[in-house]
Every structure is written in C-alpha cells, then in structure tokens.
Amino acid sequence: MDRPSASVTPKLIRAAERGDQKAASQLVDMLYPLVVTIVRRHLPRGEAEEDLCQEVFLKMFTRLKQYSGKNGFDHWVSKITIHTCYDKLRKLKRRKVMCFADLDTEEANFLFPAECLNEPALEGSPGLAAELLERLLAHLNPRETMIIRLLELEEKSVNEVCDLLDWKPSRVRVTAMRARRKLGTLLAQLEQQSVHPAITP
Q: CATH 1.10.1740.10 spans which residues of the chain?
C-alpha cells in the first residue's frame, strides 16, 4: 500500500477548495510523493512524469467539491492518479512488435539462458528484468498493462483494483487473463525465434 499523508485534514481540504493558495501548496507538498510514485509505476520510461503529476493535481483541485470524505483523501487522489495514467497510456502510440533480434546478448541470455552457452545466465538482475518487462508490457493495450501492473507488480487484490478503477471483478479477471495470455504468447514467439532465428540475406 502507498504511504498515506496523515496530515491531510478536512480543514485543509476545505481551505484549498475555497481558493486558499497556502493550503493548496500544502496539499501538493503532502501528496506529491504519493502521486509521483504511482505515476512512475505506470508511465512508460522516457515520458515526462512531472507533466502528468501537474495534470493530476489540476484534476484534484477542480474536483475538490466532489470529494465526499467517505474514503481517505489519499485513496481518492490515488484513483485520480491511476485514471490519469490510464488516459495517458491510451494516447501513447504502441511500439513495434518485439522480435528476438531486438534483444541484446544480456537480454537474450536472461530470458533464454539455455540458448546462450557462451555466457552464464544472469541472476539477480532486477534492472534488466524490469527493462525487459517494460518492453513486453508495451505490447499490451493500456487497460491490460494497467491490470498487470496493479495485480502482479503492486500485488493488489482484485477488490482493490476494482475500487481503484471502478471496474467489476469479472472485468478485472477477464482482462488479466487476456493480458497473461498475450505475454505468454509473446514469450513463446521469442523463444521460438531464439531456437530458429530468421535468416537474413
């Protein structure tokens, strides 16, 4: 779970809603760590995270009157951030299909160590694993990418994901199933190419 901003009080929220600039600045300072953490988890590398954070806070301030107080303010802001990231992903162009030839030696060895007999398999390489995962996730559609990140990487429950995205459990489960199937197919294709690489003239 993301660390809550315990200092965010109803009084501070109401002051920001009335246009108090000092209160608004305090809210941004308190919530920035939460917002930027979520943005970094879901925004593809190379995209401007600060621009998206500013968009989140703009939405937050324009919707303050909609906050009912039913759930924690951090939770409410988290939902806004998740939906903003999802909208951003939908606008980004999808990358070209990944081929085995696109992998460098380290990446190929990491995925298929049995095929790379001249070098030992990489172990304990979280940076490389993360980079490969990003490249694989780039071939899913935005909602599938979001679901895999929330369920598998952030280890949220189906109910938590439903709450964040305002989805029904069946939609979450079906989307996750399709996403996992696509990832499995992509890995199988890469493995097949590693065994039978294309012959270039």
A: 10-91
What 3-state DSSP class applies to 8?
coil
Residue 180 structure tokens: 């996992």
Tell me the longest C-alpha to C-alpha distance in the chain: 71
Kindly state the DSSP code that residue 57 receives in the 8-state scheme.
H
Class for the domain spanning 10-91: mainly alpha
* Global model pTM greater than 0.90: no
Range 100-195: architecture per CATH: Up-down Bundle (1.20)
CA distance 53 to 35: 7
Per-residue pLDDT of 100-149, as tens digits, reads 445 555 554 545 544 443 334 434 455 556 667 777 887 888 889 899 98
Numbers of helices and strands, H then E, in the chain: 9, 0
- In this structure, is the dihedral angle defined by the CA atoms of residues 73, 79, 80 and 82, taken in order, positive or negative? positive
Q: In whole angstroms, give the CA distance from residue 64 to residue 10.
A: 11
Q: What is the spatial distance between Cα 163 and Cα 40, in angstroms, rounded to a whole number?
A: 20
